[in-house]
């Protein structure tokens, strides 16, 4: 599979994440070829990125077109099967978000099968940008800009939004994945056509350490059947520099979970394994409501959870389970979902 991997080009540990994906592939006897579009645009740094951004849009578009054509030709010449092309959909420069409307070029020269946008917690990105220690003029300029939380979240949102537009133009799937996800998530999207992609929904407010272990174990088992999007891989900041930062972070957190995650997956798995249960998480119920509106398949693990609202409204009939064992038995023996035989952990 040919996978375009977009996302902010600074402030995230995306390179390490992709390296883990490549390493996981090697453990399974597979090779993933990785292209770095920024490296190609700049000829390995010989053409400074800030100079390319300082040219006219037309000149930079021709540069991108030429390099994407070269990447596509190289993939075809070498008959590479599994490929990651790391590229930007946008770049924030001089307080302007430069959008790259490259969908036609990418479709004609590379013909990707999937687009994945990588994300990270905004406070982590801010910390990384503020601690840049590099002679690279572009990175030094980014540090000097002192991007606010709102500007970072806006840049991230533009990456997701434009990548989504690319995917719609090419009629291919688009997913959003944190760089802190287990590498098997991206690995499956690269080496398997049309894998089952699910979102794990659960209470992050009421969870005790004991219950979090149960939830994590369910998610770990679920990875044997699907690409799992786990919301806890983007850690929400507990400290805010201003009321505005808190407002913006909360707004983007809700938008991310409901639209970037729930809106793009095949199914939502609600996990609420409390025998003496606390109230159902407001976030989880909101996610299930949006999953219903998006016409996504919904499942729920909920001891003693049968009620008209769970079985007739939020959850489809036959998809409410008292125990994790019942749920996984249903996946395997009723839906006949195949388990991955690959090594899924480094």
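Sequence proposed for the structure above (346 residues):
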């Amino acid at each position: 599979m040919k996978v375009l991997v977009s996302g902010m080009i600074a402030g995230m540990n995306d390179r390490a994440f992709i390296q883990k994906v490549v390493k996981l592939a090697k453990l399974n006897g597979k090779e993933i070829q990785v292209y770095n579009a920024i490296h190609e645009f700049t000829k390995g740094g010989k053409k400074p990125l800030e100079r390319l951004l300082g040219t006219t849009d037309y000149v930079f578009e021709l540069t991108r077109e030429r390099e994407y054509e070269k990447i596509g030709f190289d993939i075809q010449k070498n008959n590479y099967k599994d490929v990651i092309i790391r590229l930007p959909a946008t770049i924030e420069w001089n307080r302007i978000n430069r959008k790259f409307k490259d969908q036609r070029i990418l479709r004609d020269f590379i013909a990707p099968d999937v687009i994945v946008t990588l994300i990270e917690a905004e406070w982590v990105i801010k910390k990384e940008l503020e601690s840049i220690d590099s002679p690279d003029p572009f990175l030094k300029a980014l540090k000097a800009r002192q991007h606010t939380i709102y500007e970072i979240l806006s840049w991230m949102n533009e990456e997701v939004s434009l990548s989504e537009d690319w995917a719609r133009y090419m009629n291919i799937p688009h997913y959003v994945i944190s760089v802190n996800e287990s590498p098997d998530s991206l690995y499956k999207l690269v080496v398997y056509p049309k894998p089952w992609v699910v979102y794990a929904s659960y209470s992050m407010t009421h969870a005790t350490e004991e219950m979090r272990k149960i939830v994590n174990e369910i998610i770990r088992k679920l990875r044997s059947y699907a690409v799992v999007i786990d919301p806890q891989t983007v850690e929400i900041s507990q400290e805010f520099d201003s009321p505005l930062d808190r407002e913006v972070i909360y707004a983007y957190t809700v938008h991310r979970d409901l639209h970037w995650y729930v809106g793009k997956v095949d199914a939502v798995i609600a996990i609420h394994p409390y025998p003496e249960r606390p109230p159902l998480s407001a976030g989880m119920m909101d996610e299930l409501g949006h999953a219903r509106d998006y016409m996504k398949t919904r499942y729920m693990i909920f001891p003693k959870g049968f009620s008209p609202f769970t079985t007739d409204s939020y959850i489809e009939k036959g998809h409410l389970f008292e125990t994790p064992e019942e749920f996984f038995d249903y996946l395997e023996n009723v839906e006949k979902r195949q388990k991955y035989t690959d090594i899924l952990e480094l």
